[in-house]
Every structure is written in C-alpha cells, then in structure tokens.
C-alpha cells in the first residue's frame, strides 16, 4: 500500500517546537527522570479527529530504552534517543520519519509525528500520550453491548474522486474487541485493532508509517457504512457487505509483459554508484527475483522481511535477487542512506539498486516492458534463460492468514520448479567461473 503521499512533511531535520539545534549534542548532565515503563495510550490529532494508538516503553535510560508499537498481535520495536533535557526522538526504523516528543512535568508526552525527508514541506501530526492506559478507544467498564458480530470477510465499496483499488476487510470480534486487516490489490493495512460499541465500530493502526483509522456503523440491514482515514491528507467513505466469497483480482494477472516482450531489461546504479544490469554475468543462467520497492512503503518492508531470509537460505541453489528502490527523493546520496538502512536492518545480501523517485509513472517509463506499474512492491521472477515467468503485484503479509499462506506456497513452488530447470551450457560455465573467482 502506497503511504508516500500521506506522510506529513517538514523541511530537513528541523525539530522546531521542542529543541534547539544544539539539542542534537549529548547533554552533559541529563536529568534522572525518564519515561515511565509500561503500556501507554497515545492519541494523534488528525483533521480534528482523534486516532488512538498503543505502545510499550521499556528501559530506565536512553541507552537501554525500547519503544514498541502495539497493534493486535503485531509488535514493532524502535530505538529511543534523548534530545536535550526533556525531549525524545524515536526514529521509525527504515521509514524516514520520527516521533519527536517532550516529556511533560506530569510524566505524559506531547509531540509530533514528522517526516525527515529533506526538502519536504507540509503539516505534522500532533499527538499526546499517557502512561498506564492499556485501552485503545474505550476505557474498561464503559463498554456498550455490541449490536452485531463483525467477524468474517467484508467486501468494501469505496467512494472517491480518484480511482481506488478494490478492498476486502477480514475482521475478528471477541466481545467488544475487534482486530483485523484491510486488503487491496496493492497490499494490506497491516494489523488494525479497535472496538465495537452498540452499532458503532472503530479500528486504528500505527506501525511506523502514517497512522490509519476506520470508523463506521452497523446499519439495520447488517451492512456497514463509514470512513477510512490515512494520515492528514486522505479520507474515503465506504459501504461494506459481508461476503464469504469476496475475493480480490488475481495478483498474478494484473502486471504482465507487453506483447512482443519476453525479458526485462534495465540498468540502475547500486548503492556504490556502479551500474548493474540483468545482462551481467552474475545473473546469467540464474533464476532471478526482481523486487520493486521503496523504504517508505510498509508492504515493501514486510516483503523484504520475507525475501531476505529466504534468499540467504536458498542462494546457493542457483538463485539471485535484486531490489530496485524508488525513494522519496531523486538522489543517490539519499538512497544510499535510506536503502542502506534497509539493507543493514534486514541483513540483505542481494543487490540493491536505486531506480529514482517513487512515482508509478516513472517506474513504468524506466521498465517499458511492463504493461503498467500498479503497486510497490511488485515481484518479478525470471527463469534461467532470462525470461519473465511470474509477476506478483503487491504483497500479502502474515496477518492475512490464508492469503499469505497461499502466497508463500506458490512462491516456493514456482522457485523450486525454475531452479530445477537446466541452465544453458554457456551459463553453466559462467557460473563455474564466478564460483572460482570467489575462492
């Protein structure tokens, strides 16, 4: 799912409200008081609406502090830095954004979620947070009996001036508690968590990229109506009908090669600036997985979490992989920073290239063999002859259950079949020479 346009922006790394420029340096005598350990409840203010989220804080000092975002069963950990005497900085790992907050005298936090992309301008998302509050939307003891059980699969109809992808919600209800995921052809929302009170429901999610919220009501006929909100820039109305047979378009049939093409051709610089092409000897006679990603894209991160350990385990079987990153700034120096962070965090051993600015039209121009480019990420699987055999649009994460299981099974089956195919005699000699070079 493309969240690039929803990230609040600011120019450079200015931290404005909370610290002066000198606050980046270490404090000589930092105060003993720090953030209270335990579960916290935070609330973003988005277009005058409240978007709640939960996190856990562990560690009695900045050196050992861990900030963990909580969403249903999902856990995302982040490092904490102290800024000045009374502020903290929580970088959103590989996403070029951060939570910047002041520790108030009463122990609460007040701050903003900010983009760190150089040159971006725009608004930030203000938030406050209180310790010891484990609920998300409603305090314990104030629940209202649910008017319905929303467990199951829901087909969403979205209303927007711009084209929006088809969506399915898979929800699970336990009493007043709701958890689930919104799936589209371009990816999923990651796990969201919320509540149903009477005939009204709400779910939210915040895992590092811009926060997400969905709110609505249960109609008399059992259908749902409501709004989806992304950050500060987009709000989409929807209707939903429970439908166990609802399905999204086949992700293997959305992106394909234009008539007359069998192969993909490109040359992009790696993170050292060296041009890399599929025609390089390294890839001849190998099965190659090409992944089109962006570090700003949560589904791309989830796909990387899947692909990196798979590749490290299977590389010696005659397979290579390439990630082509399209970033929020058209700068190799910036991509070296963002994609380098991604490489280091997820132990990526395959080549990472820089494709340019994160723009779908630009991707289509730079990869003209594709009929169109729909989603970050897109996975392209190439056989030993250099011919494209599969293209998968988007990514379905583990929270999608059966959808993820089906993806994993087909991915492994297709790769096993292609790896088992014989390489040409020339390619076999090249591969043998490459192996000898490495000794």
TrEMBL record:
Q: Where is the signal peptide?
A: 1-25
Superkingdom in the source lineage: Bacteria
Q: Where is the Thioredoxin domain?
A: 257-420
The alphabetized UniProt keywords are: Signal
Tell me the PROSITE patterns matching this sequence.
Answer: THIOREDOXIN_2
Any one GO MF term held by the record is: oxidoreductase activity
Please give the PANTHER family that the UniProt record associates with this protein.
Answer: PROTEIN DIPZ, THIOL:DISULFIDE INTERCHANGE PROTEIN DSBE
Name used for this protein in its record:
Peroxiredoxin
């Amino acid at each position: 799912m493309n969240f690039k346009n929803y990230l609040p922006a600011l120019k450079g790394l200015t931290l404005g409200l909370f610290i002066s420029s000198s606050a980046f340096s270490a404090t000589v005598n930092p105060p003993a008081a720090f953030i209270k350990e335990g579960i916290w409840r935070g609330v973003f203010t988005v277009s005058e609406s409240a978007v709640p989220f939960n996190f856990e804080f562990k560690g009695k000092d900045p050196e050992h502090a861990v900030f963990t975002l909580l969403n249903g069963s999902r856990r995302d950990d982040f490092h904490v830095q102290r800024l000045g005497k009374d502020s903290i900085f929580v970088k959103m790992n590989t996403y070029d954004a951060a939570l910047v907050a002041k520790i108030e005298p009463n122990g609460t936090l007040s701050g903003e979620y900010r983009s760190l992309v150089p040159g971006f301008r725009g608004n930030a998302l203000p938030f406050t947070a209180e310790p010891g509050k484990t609920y998300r939307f409603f305090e314990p003891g104030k629940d209202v009996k649910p008017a319905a059980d929303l467990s199951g699969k829901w087909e969403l109809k979205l209303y927007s001036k711009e084209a929006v992808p088809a969506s399915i919600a898979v929800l699970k209800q336990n009493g007043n508690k709701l958890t689930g995921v919104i799936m589209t052809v371009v990816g999923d929302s990651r796990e969201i968590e919320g509540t149903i009170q009477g005939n009204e429901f709400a779910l939210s999610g915040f895992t590092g990229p811009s926060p997400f919220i969905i709110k609505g009501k249960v109609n008399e006929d059992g259908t749902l109506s409501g709004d989806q909100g992304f950050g500060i820039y987009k709000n989409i109305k929807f209707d939903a009908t429970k439908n166990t047979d609802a399905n999204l378009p086949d992700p293997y049939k959305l992106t394909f090669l234009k008539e007359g093409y069998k192969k993909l051709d490109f040359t992009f610089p790696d993170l050292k600036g060296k041009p890399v092409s599929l025609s390089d000897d390294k890839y001849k006679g190998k099965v190659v997985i090409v992944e089109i990603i962006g570090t700003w894209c949560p589904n791309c991160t989830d796909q990387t979490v899947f692909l990196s350990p798979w590749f490290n385990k299977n590389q010696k079987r005659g397979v290579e992989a390439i990630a082509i990153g399209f970033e929020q700034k058209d700068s190799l120096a910036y991509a070296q920073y963002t994609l380098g962070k991604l490489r280091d965090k997820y132990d990526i051993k395959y080549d990472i290239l820089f494709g340019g600015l994160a723009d779908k039209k630009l991707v289509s121009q730079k990869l003209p063999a594709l009929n169109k480019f729909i989603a970050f990420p897109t996975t392209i699987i190439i056989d030993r002859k250099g011919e494209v055999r599969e293209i998968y649009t988007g990514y379905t994460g583990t929270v999608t259950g059966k959808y993820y299981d089906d993806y994993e099974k087909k991915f492994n089956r297709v790769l096993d079949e292609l790896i088992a195919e014989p390489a040409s005699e020339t390619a076999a000699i090249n591969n043998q020479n490459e192996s000898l070079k490495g000794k």
